[in-house]
Amino acid sequence: MENGAFSKEDFAKWGKDYVLFCHITTHIPDMKYDNLLTKVGGQGFPHMVFMDQDGEVLATHEGAREPAAFEKSGAAARESAKLKQKAAGGDVAAKFEWTCRQMEAGTLAVDAGKSKIKEIGKLTADQQKRFDSLLFDAGINEMFAGINSQEKFTEVGKKCLDYLKEKKIPKSDNAFDNFINGCFGYADSKKDADGFGMSIKALRDRKGDEADYKPIFENLEKHLAELKGGGEKKDDAPEKKDKKDGK
């Protein structure tokens, strides 16, 4: 919702069923709850989640910012609340699903997720496949959360590009955004046109249908041409000249 749409009547009507809360991360020393964005799995602004009375994330909103989409996320949150209650009561299937949803929300770290799954016991093949995917995404986010220098960013970016070459790509939006930025950053720093081109393809596969990305792709393709040109002009020009001279 843009242009003041949060103040419109349909949003106000929808909001009556929820306790609306806005948190602004300030980076002011000693500010209470200033790490809340990270705690609820946020990677950027705005980050919208549904939480229960304990402050635990029940659902992350990733759709359009309008009442109909918010209601869909709200329904998912209510379902998660019931799931959490069943898990607390010892339901094994609910424990697995609730753990997965915490991983999806970004509120459960890799090691904590592994510990919870270990308590559940042996998983089915489909459950293991799903959980391994969630672990991969969580691992990507944890790598980026630990970046504190350009050197570390380069190291993480290389890992992401290596994963991309192995066709291992995160499924969640947050993990993918981190992942693809790392791929582009590393490929660009090394003047790796092939890696940069692979990164464009991965982004196009994920975001190619979104109109907002059209100018982004145009700029990326332009930069890719520059990377290719920078690596080919010196070698190709003499060869073309020799052919023209008949040598």
Structure characterization notes:
- Among the domains are: 1-69, no CATH class; 150-236, no CATH class.
- 64% of the residues lie in helices and 4% in strands.
- It is built from 10 helices and 2 strands, in the order H-H-E-E-H-H-H-H-H-H-H-H.
- Helix 4 (92-105) packs antiparallel against helix 5 (110-120) and helix 7 (150-165) crosses helix 8 (173-189).
- The radius of gyration is 23 Å and the shape is globular.
- Residues 231-247 have low confidence and may be disordered.
- Helical stretch tally: 10
- Mean pLDDT across residues: 83
Identify the overall geometry: globular
N-to-C SSE series?
Answer: HHEEHHHHHHHH
Question: What is the percentage of strand-forming residues?
Answer: under 5%
Catalogue the unreliable spans.
Answer: 231-247
Strand count, sense and barrel status of the largest sheet are:
2 strands, antiparallel
Distance between the termini: 65 Å
Structural class: mainly alpha
**Oligomeric status of the shown chains?**
single chain
Radius of gyration: 23 Å
Summary of the model, kept short:
This protein is mainly alpha-helical and 247 residues long. Among the domains are: 1-69, no CATH class; 150-236, no CATH class. The protein has helices at 9-15, 36-39, 67-88, 92-105, 110-120, 125-145, 150-165, 173-189, 193-207, 214-245, and strands at 48-51, 57-61.
Please write out the topology:
Layout: H1 9-15, H2 36-39, E1 48-51, E2 57-61, H3 67-88, H4 92-105, H5 110-120, H6 125-145, H7 150-165, H8 173-189, H9 193-207, H10 214-245
Antiparallel strand pairs: 1-2
